[in-house]
Write a structure and sequence with these properties.
This protein is 26% helix and 36% strand. Strands 20, 22, 23, 24, 25, 27 and 28 form a seven-stranded mixed β-sheet that branches. Strands 10-14-15-12-11 form a five-stranded antiparallel β-sheet, with no helix packed on it. It has a four-stranded antiparallel β-sheet with strand order 1-3-5-4, covered by helices on one side. The protein folds into four domains: 103 residues, Sandwich (Jelly Rolls), CATH 2.60.120; 129 residues, Immunoglobulin-like; 128 residues, Sandwich (Immunoglobulin-like); 105 residues, no CATH class. Strand 24 and strand 25 form a beta hairpin. The longest helix is centred in the C-terminal third of the chain and has 29 residues. The chain has nine helices and 29 strands. Helix 6 runs antiparallel to helix 8 and helix 8 packs antiparallel against helix 9. It is an alpha+beta fold. The chain starts with a helix and ends in a 5-residue tail after the last helix.
Amino acid sequence: MKKLFIPLLIVLGFLASATVGLAQGQDVITAQVDRAVLSTDETLTLSVTVNASASNLPNPTLPALDGFNIVGTGSSSQISIINGSMSAQMVYNYRLQPYQAGELVIEPVSMTIDGQTYTTDPISIKVVQGTGQAAPVTPINPTAPTSRGFAGQDAFVEADVDNPTPYLGQQVIYSFRYYEAADRFGFEQPSYEAPAFTGFWSESQTEQNQYQVQAGGRMYRVTELRTILFPSKTGEVTIEPAQLSIPGGFFSRGANLQTDPVTLEIKPLPAGAPASFNGAVGQFTIDSSVDSSSGRANEPITWQVTLSGRGNLNTLPDPQWPDMPGWRSFDSQATHNTQMQDGQVVGSRVYERLLVPQREGDFTIPALEYSYFDPAEERYQTISSQPIPVSIAPGDGTGAQSYTAEPANEAANEASSAETPDLKPAPAQLALSGAPVTASPLYWLAWVVPALGLVGNFFWQRRQQYRLANPEAVRRSQAGKKAKATLKQVSSGDQQPYEAAVLVLTTYLADKFGQPVAGLTRPALRQLLIEKGVETELSKQVVACLNEAETGRFAPQTDDLASAADLIQTVDTVIEDLEKVKVR
């Protein structure tokens, strides 16, 4: 190892001296774009090339970029040896989207190296006004929708509805789509926060689809979430933006994305509704039946009415029950069953009414009318069930007490008492047949579990709000975990260990201390660590790890695998020690 160390120092010294030579022989920093004419719907890539050693190299200083938004960044490095001459090159890429038309100028980009400042030439760009539509996205899945706001970013979200002008109560599908570049490398799942959907009844069930699209020679993974909505008020209603939080990693940058708000114009139902209309919107059928077409007076018959079809069955209005002289009726709670079918909520709502005839005879349970507004036909419809004949025989009196409102008279009571055999006197106090239900642990568990669920949901929501409001604190708290997970992958994978060690350690320090460190000199880095509360000896170890990693990075020894493994282990130990530091 010592024999190798001296040649490595010679190589690094040659590289440091070569930087000055490169500055004299060619431009140290240059800038170019991949297109000089574009519309406001398109993006261009600004590439800043630095011909110098990547060690301790600061980031380029960008100008104001008037007329452009930065929608993506990236960088790459390259070292080449030609005829014994070594050269190092760093390329910084910035994806820019113009937000105004006209003759725009990208002012010079600058960089200061060893006290000397280098600048690029200005670049003129011609921007024409676009149509408000992004470049078309070609779906691989033929059923996949085409994104309307796509701008070529590494990650992008959008939202829309299938019908921006529905009737009150008509089904609307709200679609949220998350586009992620297929070549984007990340470890954690994004966190989706749906809008509040104020002014809508929202189905709790959400459909999720995944597919791929290709745009501009680049592949994207798309996750689509569909939520069924039913407008509950008329006029202009706006769905607030949906939020997506993408955690950052060592090989990808985090981001907080949000969709544009979606505005709908909800139309009121037209005039001319029939008398039996009670607010139902959709397409429905009605059916009714009884459990028996014959019975006895004062004995119950079950009348079942079923409404089936498409619409908001959870809030479907009840039918207008007819008057039935000679009958008493008892309502029960309606039950409903819904499911998604071809993007529509379909199902049934079932009513069961207990009917008790008060006398014998032949009766007819009348037809039941039900009216609804059909948004597809844009008119009201009235449906009805079939009348049901029922034959009632005289009752035997056994069920009269249960369903007759009038109490029996005293004479009947006395007669009944006279015919009844001697009975044991009722005890003064009734004994329980078993332990009370409140003595069972399951009884209290049934109360405690929902309460714990509510408490847990409350704290989970608070945690999600905190994560969105404090991304820096979240990154700081997860820095060590991410670093160790990445080092573990480096140890078991085929990544370049020296390059990964530099990337892991600098990214960890930036997340831990909330400040970029990639462009700092070694003395400046040590000073920063000490100011943040890191002990002097530990700060020296950090610098030593970076020096060893960059030594292997720019003059790698392919057969020195043991040294690379030792470095990864040392970085892991240093990160463990840094995790114990209380940041000032």
